[in-house]
Amino acid sequence: MLLNVAVIIPVKGDAGYLPECVRSILANTYPHKEITIVDDGLTSKAREALNEFSAAVKILDSQGKGPSFARNAAAQATRADLLAFTDSDCIAKADWLEELVRGFAEFPGVIACGGIQKIPDDACAFEKKVFLFLQRCGFISEYVRAVKGSNIIPINHNASCNVMYKRDVFLKEGGFKAGLWPGEDVELDYRLKRSGYTLILNPAAIVYHYRPKDLKAFLTMMYRYGLAQGFLVRKYGLFRLMHFLPGAALGMLVVLPFVLPFNFFVSLLMLVCAGYAIVLLIFKFDGELTRIALSAFIYWNAGFFKGLIKPSVYKT
């Protein structure tokens, strides 16, 4: 028996890719699906664009309470067996839902199945650089993964732009933490894993995800990512590999002046130069990609320490 799937898309602002996102889901080959768009603060122009889909989708209003609240509200409003989450700037491959459901069919005991992200062919050059950076960091961030092979594998975390949960467990465990964004998917999966549930990833479940189009938007995103991770470390302690990076960087700054026969500022300069050389090597001497990586490191860490020291930035 085929299970019913509710596809949930929280969205705000202009949402320029939303029509294309919805069309890709409507074109998905899985037959037992419904689509819920949660208006978390759309512009009037974006609302008008939804008229095209008035007969095919449900639209909820989350009154601007954030994507976590929006997703939870949609989950409570449906009776579907499975909840599939994606973002409005994602384009789903035609068999996306089929592949996510296949994960549950082949591994009945799991409660969540995720997929991978790729970059759309028509993304701009900067978006493709950002995607490459995120992919190269996938081993530590668990966000954009370069998965080898096609086997379904157990995993600690799936990004909320490409994941499916069993609705009953999702609601039982409280769903996404309202008020937390981004990082709400990390927090939920951490709680699920801690409770003994199994999560998997199917590399054949693919969405094509657009990225920030310029450096300013990208660094804003990285700062918010860091902010969320700092908050989570304050709440739960260290539980991801990336959580150890800020402490390691600070440790080097403290220890290096005592190890090298130079003053602090010379040691700091040497550390920065060494870091630049290492990153340059990792990104195969791609100067722009290296600058993106170093800028991201600075902004992510700035956000991390603020979230760690001042958790009140999130009213959760």
Characterization of this structure:
The chain is an alpha/beta fold. Helix content is 47%, strand content 18%. It has twelve helices and nine strands. The chain has helices at 18-26, 44-49, 67-77, 96-106, 125-136, 138-141, 167-172, 184-194, 215-236, 245-259, 264-282, 287-309, and strands spanning 5-13, 33-42, 58-61, 82-86, 90-92, 112-118, 153-155, 162-166, 199-209. Strands 1, 2, 3, 4, 5, 6, 7, 8 and 9 form a nine-stranded mixed beta sheet that branches. α1 (18-26) links the parallel β1 (5-13) and β2. The two termini are 39 Å apart.
- Major sheet description: 9 strands, mixed
Order of helices and strands: EHEHEHEEHEHHEEHHEHHHH
The oligomerization state is single chain
Helix content: 40-55%
Mean pLDDT: 87
Number of strands: 9
CATH superfamily of the largest domain: Spore Coat Polysaccharide Biosynthesis Protein SpsA, Chain A
Low-confidence stretches: none
Which of globular, elongated, flat, extended, rod-shaped describes the shape? Answer: globular
- Radius of gyration (CA) equals 20 Å
Structural class: alpha/beta
Please identify the top-level CATH class of the largest domain.
Answer: Alpha Beta
Number of helices: 12
Q: What would the CATH topology of the largest domain be?
A: Spore Coat Polysaccharide Biosynthesis Protein SpsA, Chain A
Write the layout of secondary structure elements.
Elements: E1 5-13, H1 18-26, E2 33-42, H2 44-49, E3 58-61, H3 67-77, E4 82-86, E5 90-92, H4 96-106, E6 112-118, H5 125-136, H6 138-141, E7 153-155, E8 162-166, H7 167-172, H8 184-194, E9 199-209, H9 215-236, H10 245-259, H11 264-282, H12 287-309
Parallel strand pairs: 1-2, 1-4, 2-3, 6-9
Antiparallel strand pairs: 4-8, 5-9, 6-8, 7-9
Helix pairs in contact: 5-12, 9-12, 10-11, 11-12
